[in-house]
Design a protein that fits this description.
The protein is α/β, with parallel strands linked by helices.
Length: 356
């Protein structure tokens, strides 16, 4: 009997102690999960896409060496026709003769001839298209801009346009060399804003979407051709960055339905794909859609076709890249759906005619 009385309280205390420890353990798990949720929410919030409002886009392209740019700028204008995008400016990172006119052709064709156009005025690459499709467009379609000297410098356009936008409202989409963005970051305060280029970007831009890089490691054209600019941009860019790497667009083949669509006539994108696809046997199933994927993400977001892998790119002096999984603030696309699903979306958008 004494032993029973003595052991009772000890059992109660032991059970209470276990119960308290379990409760504390459960509370700790809930707290960790909550913090993880907050962290994840913060990450998602920093790269959120509001599909109810049009994305405010500055389009920056080399629009010459390849012709997937043609599909990309067509998609951007079609999404603007649908009310999903507002095109703030179209600038070239390439300064071959006629590049300003090519941008003007597309802006005019889609009934937006007043969109600001800029080309590099300082040091920049000059690469025209080997298939000479740009000559065909300039000869066939109306445009007011005949020479690059008729338009301001790309950095001037960036600074003027950004200064007028609400804070954290602009998405910059690049599908070419990072020349303009490096020069923008290095620019000083002046006529349009007293802020330095980096300060202006941090204040006005919410996201950079770039068709560049080959992840998790490799060497890609856009990143490597002006490697020093790429290094400067991706080491110092002050907003979140999403990369549509070379592996994303390579398996998404588009253009053939546009070529064969009998309902589409006098269309610059159709003309370009009709000229270029037969020139390369590798394009017999359609052209790889590197630039089109970047535009799609910039306007509509990465869901449901991709997920994001977080980290930060490290670029060597030769332009090759590797991914640092311990980094933050930058993401590359990872396929979630099949390339065929994205292919159908891109083909359908490219086949849309301008809104009257």
């Amino acid at each position: 009997m004494p032993n029973t009385l003595h052991s009772g309280p000890e059992k109660i205390n032991w059970r209470y102690k276990i119960s308290a420890e379990v409760s504390l353990f459960i509370l700790l798990i809930i707290l960790i999960a909550g913090l993880a949720g907050c962290s994840q929410h913060h990450q998602n919030k920093s790269i959120s896409f509001n599909r109810k409002k049009p994305a405010h886009i500055i389009y920056d392209a080399d629009i010459g060496p390849d012709y997937d740019d043609v599909g990309a700028i067509t998609i951007l204008h079609v999404l603007a026709d649908k009310g999903e995008a507002k095109i703030l400016a179209t600038v070239a990172s390439n300064k071959y003769k006629g590049v300003a006119g090519v941008l003007d052709v597309f802006n005019t064709y889609f009934n937006r001839p007043d969109i600001p156009i800029g080309v590099p005025k300082g040091q920049a690459l000059s690469m025209s298209d080997p298939q000479h499709w740009s000559d065909t467009l300039l000869a066939k379609y109306p445009h007011k801009i005949k020479y690059n000297r008729q338009v301001p410098g790309a950095v001037q356009v960036y600074r003027k346009v950004l200064s007028k936008q609400p804070d954290h409202s602009v998405t910059i989409e690049t599908e070419g060399f990072l020349t303009n963005l490096a020069q923008l970051l290095a620019s000083k305060g002046g006529k349009y804003s007293p802020l330095s280029g980096r300060e202006l970007v941090k204040k006005k831009v919410k996201l950079l979407v770039s068709m560049a890089g080959k992840f998790p490691s490799g060497k890609e054209w856009n990143m490597s051709q002006d490697a020093q600019s790429s290094i400067q941009v991706f080491e110092h860019w002050p907003t979140p960055v999403i990369f549509s790497g070379a592996k994303i667009g390579s398996k998404i083949k588009t253009g053939l339905p546009l070529i064969h669509d009998q309902n589409v006539h006098h269309d610059p994108a159709k003309d370009v794909f009709s000229i270029c696809i037969p020139m390369n046997p590798a394009d017999s199933a359609g052209r790889s859609s590197w630039d089109e994927t970047a535009v799609l993400v910039a306007v509509r977001g990465y869901k449901p076709y991709w997920t994001l892998h977080q980290g930060k790119v490290i670029i060597s002096s030769d332009g090759s890249d590797k991914w640092d999984n311990n980094g933050s603030g930058q993401y590359y696309l990872v396929p979630k759906e099949s390339p065929e699903k994205v292919q159908k979306v891109i083909n359908k958008l490219m086949m849309q005619t301008p809104k009257k």
